[in-house]
Amino acid sequence: MAFINQGTLQTNGAPVLLSRIMTNSEAFTIGYSVKLASGFITAGTAGALVFGHVAGLGTEKGMPLNTTGVAGAEIGSFVGTYTNASDNQTVAKAKALCDVSKFTLYSASFETAIGTTTGSNLPGYFCDLDSAYDLDESDTTTTTMQYALHGVDPLNSAKALVNIYESQVFGV
What we know:
This protein has 172 residues and is mainly β. It has one helix at residues 88-92; strands at residues 4-8, 17-21, 27-29, 33-37, 40-43, 52-58, 81-83, 95-99, 104-108, 123-127, 129-131, 134-135, 147-153, 156-164. The protein folds into 2 domains: 11-99, no CATH class; 104-164, no CATH class. It has a 5-stranded antiparallel β-sheet with strand order 1-9-14-13-10, with no helix packed on it. A 5-stranded antiparallel β-sheet has the order 2-8-6-4-5, with no helix packed on it.
């Protein structure tokens, strides 16, 4: 499962959206955690600073992507996951619109059951990514990591509420 926006830690907060070109030949889904690598959006990985979470996908000119996977086409739309062309960085230039705010709260899943490791279901703990779409439950600790935990999601007891802690945009 991807990271699902559940609000903000600021009373007047809103997403902070930045659009960047995605890397070649990689699949992206709304809600994925991403980082910048060599100037392009790529899937987030454990231990790397977090750029943000994919909030939207579009062409270089901001138009919807089409279902055939031709990012340069400015018609149609897609549902689910979009895979970039092998020359996306230089030709198609499809972009990911990302929420980079450290104040956005997300409902996030772990790669295994929440609460298995001490702290994965408690506020005041931290954890890293397991993949671009879930957290590493066994990596939960009280020392700083990519995401700050805020306890169990009250709308889904199998998930935790988190926010970006180690940000590629705003620092730690």
